[in-house]
Every structure is written in C-alpha cells, then in structure tokens.
C-alpha cells in the first residue's frame, strides 16, 4: 500500500490531501463550512441549528480550530448584549469551492443508490 509520507520531501508529504484533511477532518467541519457558505455571517446558535446533531462543545471547539487554521473569521461586536458572528475567510471560501466536486459526487451517489432501492 502506498504511503502519503515520503522522508525525502521537505515536509514529509507527497500530496496536499493529508494537509487538507488536517483542516477539514471529521464529519462536522465540512458541514460547518457548508453552513457558512450558504448562510454567511452567522451567530453560534444559528450555526448550531444549521448543523443538526452537533453539540455546543464540538461546535465551539471546531470553530476555534477553524479560526486558528485561517478558515473562519470570528467577529465580535462591541454591543450589549455581546454579539459574535462567524464567516468564511477567503481561504475558507476557496476550500468550499474545492469541496464542491466532492459534494456533487455525493449527490450523484445518493441519487443513484436511491434509484436502485
């Protein structure tokens, strides 16, 4: 079986898939990205409703990680009560564009397997 790591490569990797997966790994981050793509500038509670099944703890953790990775911006407004919104950065938008072919593949697969049932 081929490996993605190569000792002679500058960063030990031969492709960008592993790097991308570090940023979007797991089920929830991709769904958060998609929710922000379809509904820009969303508050935490709105995101939680847009991503059914995610817990507050997981959403908060993933948003922090995605902010650190430069995929999501967190904007705090100096208001009473405090308001915080999340939006995709340019890198997050580009990542969503890169994921669109994968989403199309998934829709096609779902439709073809639904027709076969």
The CATH C-level name is: Mainly Alpha
Number of domains: 1
Mean pLDDT: 86
Q: What's the order of the H and E elements?
A: HHHHEEH
The radius of gyration is: 17 Å
Write the layout of secondary structure elements.
Elements: H1 17-24, H2 27-38, H3 44-50, H4 56-68, E1 72-77, E2 83-88, H5 90-116
Antiparallel strand pairs: 1-2
Helix pairs in contact: 2-5
Short overview:
With 117 residues, the protein is mostly helical.
Structure description:
The protein is built from five helices and two strands; from the N terminus they run ααααββα. The chain is mainly alpha-helical. The chain has a single domain (17-110), classed as Orthogonal Bundle (Arc Repressor Mutant, subunit A). The longest helix has 27 residues, at 90-116. It is globular. The protein starts with 16 loop residues before the first helix and ends with a helix. The mean pLDDT is 86.
Give keywords.
globular; 2 strands; single chain; 10% strand; 117 residues; Arc Repressor Mutant, subunit A
């Amino acid at each position: 079986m081929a490996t993605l790591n190569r000792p002679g490569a500058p960063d030990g990797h031969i492709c960008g898939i592993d790097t991308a997966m570090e940023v979007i790994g797991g089920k929830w981050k991709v769904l958060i990205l998609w929710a922000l793509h379809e509904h820009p500038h969303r508050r935490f509670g709105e995101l939680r409703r847009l991503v059914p099944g995610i817990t507050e703890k997981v959403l908060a953790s993933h948003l922090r990680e995605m902010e650190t990775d430069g995929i999501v911006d967190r904007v705090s407004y100096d208001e009473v009560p405090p308001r915080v919104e999340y939006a995709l950065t340019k890198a997050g938008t580009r990542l969503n564009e890169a994921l669109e072919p994968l989403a199309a593949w998934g829709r096609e697969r779902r439709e073809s397997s639904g027709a076969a049932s």
